[in-house]
Each structure stands twice: as C-alpha cells, then as structure tokens.
Amino acid sequence: MDTVAVAVSADDPITRDGVVARLADFPQLRVVGPGERAQVILVIAGEVTAAVLDRIRRCVPETAGGREPGLVLVANAIGREQLLAAVRLGLVGLLPRRSVGFERLVATLEAAASGGARLPDGAQRCLLDQLRGAQRSMGVTGQEPADPLSTREIRVLRLLADGVDTVGVAAQLNYSERTVKNIIHGVVTRQRLRNRTHAVAYAMRVGAF
C-alpha cells in the first residue's frame, strides 16, 4: 500500500512530537523529515499570524515543475488576509485546532495528497467573495485569457469551486479520476499556477465562470 508522505510543523517541539507520534498509528501515512519530499505539509498553530505564514513559506519548497505539496493547516483562528495568503501558499485543508480529531485530520491529509480540498464553508465563501470582488475591481467581463481554458477544463474547475472533490468530479462528468487529475495538472502547468486552488482562482479571475 502506498503511503502519504507528510511533513509536520508546529509552534513548539512538544506539540510536533505528539502529533508525529499519533500519526504513526496510521499506516497510510509516513512522516518525513527536513529536506525529504512531502506530498502534504501539515502546519499546526494557534492564531495564524505573519510569523506562522513565514514558517509556512519556509516549509513550502520552491519547485519549477511537478506537483507541489498540499498545505493542511490546523489552527484556532485565522483572519481574512491570512486565509488568502495561506491559499497562495497552497492551502487545501483547514481544520479547527480546538475540536478536530485525528481521524478527521488523517482523512484531510489523504484528501490533500490525492488532489482534494477540504475548507470550511465560511472559508470558501470568503475566498469566493474575494475573487468576485477582484473581478469587479478589475473590470473582468468574461474575456478569455491569451491561452484560453477549454470547455472540459472549465467544467472541472467549476465543480472544484463548488467544493466537489476529484472523485465527485469524475462521477459527475463521467471521467476517470486520473483524467480529472490530468486536467487539473494541465491547467496548473500551462498557466504556471501553484495548485488546484490557484487554478480555480485563476478561472474565476479571467471570467471563465
């Protein structure tokens, strides 16, 4: 069975060591050390501050190609600007530190590794409002970009924007999950984006939907 490689960062070593020890109980996960390639970066914080965002930036590798790791953030509080900054850094999962259990955390890590995103409804609304506001302020009226998105790409990205994961997108469009992932990867690579969340934001910014 393939395991998901997870890098763990926390506010303090005691928290990190405790989380690492608990994740060892889940055979589908493998915690990696500094310098090792991770599929998912797990960051645990109290309030998401500028210092936490700086720590995330140090965790996220600069890659010229290939798929970048998904970012899962477990935190007590996050502001609007910090949320938007985290999305730019690859955020695909956001969980409440005070109440999340390890079963839910592991499910989110697995979803992130497979290209899924799990954000609370409030966070999704915040992002959509921000994107729509950016469209209005930029005067976007549905014009196509220089390298336009295909109809198939737009269908996939629209479902992702609605919170559907890759399995659900495949079922609704009668594609294989591999095809859906290849479509997302094609958009990310061609438009030089960071991840699927950035791809959805890009599609909305150019007025694709």
Secondary structure layout plus pairing:
Blueprint: E1 4-10, H1 13-23, E2 29-31, E3 40-44, H2 50-59, E4 70-75, H3 80-88, E5 91-96, H4 102-113, H5 121-138, H6 151-161, H7 166-173, H8 177-190, H9 196-205
Parallel strand pairs: 1-2, 1-3, 3-4, 4-5
Helix pairs in contact: 6-8, 6-9, 7-8
Polypeptide structure, described:
By secondary structure, the protein is an alpha/beta fold. The protein is 49% helix and 13% strand. It contains nine helices and five strands, in the order βαββαβαβαααααα. The chain is globular and about 50 Å long.
In short:
With 209 residues, the protein is an alpha/beta fold. The protein has helices at residues 13-23, 50-59, 80-88, 102-113, 121-138, 151-161, 166-173, 177-190, 196-205; strands spanning 4-10, 29-31, 40-44, 70-75, 91-96. It is built from 9 helices and 5 strands, in the order βαββαβαβαααααα.
Q: What's the helix count?
A: 9
Oligomer: single chain
* Biggest β-sheet: strands ordered side by side in the sheet: 2-1-3-4-5
Can you give the mean pLDDT? 80
SSE series: EHEEHEHEHHHHHH
